[in-house]
């Protein structure tokens, strides 16, 4: 049965801000989802031509997971949905925009489903993205669903941060992190060249699309991308391969320190950077990003886009 997506299924208030538009159940725990990327202005311009931002894949995974969980697996709309790990691999050439359709089909398989009673608690989502019958990317992620009451109990006083303004600290120069606008910078200077402080801008409507009591995961991924860009010293960084583990919530009222290091790779045509985040002396996320050679380095126009980058 073919069904149209609704904003509450993917926790988005603006219909124009929704990636999955409709879906069809193919068999138990397998679905075909249509993704709308025609409205996404998140394009990367390179000497090889315009490309869709591969980190759109990172956002497609949680949105399609939420869609299926709410619409087909019985998860109430008011439950909290948290991704604990996520990875993808994209084809840089397939990301090319020139003359190709912007409509993407996402094949979704749900596995490792656990329930407490009748309520879904955990699931793994594996996705395959194709465009014009060409493989665009593959990816997967693990999510946990938590009831609104349990979430409030778990977060306790941290819920008071919901919607509270956070002082905006000065960022690094936009050019250092592949950005054109100061407001799109999510890194501030640290205590050494390979360290930065996370710059939280809760007024940024792309980075914070709704009030939150903690830093959204996509902000952390954008911080990882910007740290990789600064580490390589290139104009920007095209993360065609990415894996991330979110270890705990990143709070809004305490400094989060971002560190990056180059990782040796046997393939000279790629560059891999490992990024970690620490807050209050504990690791909060770990992310590894791999980019093609400099011939595919890109320059971006800023975060007046669909994604945080």
UniProtKB/TrEMBL annotation:
<dbReference type="InterPro" id="IPR042171">
    <property type="entry name" value="Acyl-CoA_hotdog"/>
</dbReference>
<dbReference type="InterPro" id="IPR005509">
    <property type="entry name" value="AfsA_hotdog_dom"/>
</dbReference>
<dbReference type="InterPro" id="IPR047757">
    <property type="entry name" value="AfsA-like"/>
</dbReference>
<feature type="domain" description="A-factor biosynthesis hotdog">
    <location>
        <begin position="176"/>
        <end position="290"/>
    </location>
</feature>
<dbReference type="GO" id="GO:0016740">
    <property type="term" value="F:transferase activity"/>
</dbReference>
<feature type="domain" description="A-factor biosynthesis hotdog">
    <location>
        <begin position="9"/>
        <end position="145"/>
    </location>
</feature>
<protein>
    <submittedName>
        <fullName>JadW1</fullName>
    </submittedName>
</protein>
<dbReference type="InterPro" id="IPR029069">
    <property type="entry name" value="HotDog_dom_sf"/>
</dbReference>
<dbReference type="Pfam" id="PF03756">
    <property type="entry name" value="AfsA"/>
</dbReference>
């Amino acid at each position: 049965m073919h069904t149209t997506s609704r904003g509450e299924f993917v926790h988005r208030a603006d219909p124009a801000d929704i990636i999955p538009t409709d879906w069809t159940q193919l068999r138990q725990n397998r679905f075909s989802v249509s993704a709308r990327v025609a409205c996404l202005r998140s394009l990367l311009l390179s000497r090889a031509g315009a490309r869709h931002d591969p980190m759109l894949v990172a956002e497609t995974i949680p949105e399609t997971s939420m869609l299926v969980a709410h619409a087909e697996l019985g998860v109430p709309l008011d439950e909290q949905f948290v991704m604990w790990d996520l990875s993808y691999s994209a084809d840089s050439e397939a990301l090319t925009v020139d003359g190709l359709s912007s409509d993407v089909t996402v094949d979704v398989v749900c596995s490792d489903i656990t329930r407490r009673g009748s309520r879904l608690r955990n699931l793994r989502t594996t996705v395959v993205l194709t465009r014009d019958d060409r493989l665009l990317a593959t990816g997967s992620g693990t999510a946990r669903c938590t009831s609104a009451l349990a979430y409030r109990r778990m977060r306790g006083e941290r819920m008071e941060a919901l919607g509270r303004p956070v002082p905006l600290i000065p960022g690094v120069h936009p050019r250092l992190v592949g950005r054109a606008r100061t407001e799109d910078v999510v890194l501030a200077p640290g205590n050494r060249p390979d360290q930065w402080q996370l710059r939280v801008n809760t007024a940024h409507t792309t980075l914070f699309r709704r009030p939150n009591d903690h830093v959204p995961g996509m902000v952390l991924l954008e911080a990882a991308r910007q740290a990789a860009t600064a580490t390589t010293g290139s104009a920007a960084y095209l993360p065609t391969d990415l894996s991330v583990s979110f270890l705990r919530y990143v709070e809004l009222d305490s400094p989060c320190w971002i560190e990056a290091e180059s990782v040796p790779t046997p393939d000279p045509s790629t560059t891999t950077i490992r990024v970690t985040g620490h807050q209050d002396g504990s690791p909060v996320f770990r992310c590894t990003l791999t980019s093609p050679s400099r011939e595919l380095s890109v320059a971006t126009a800023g975060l007046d886009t669909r994604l945080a980058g």
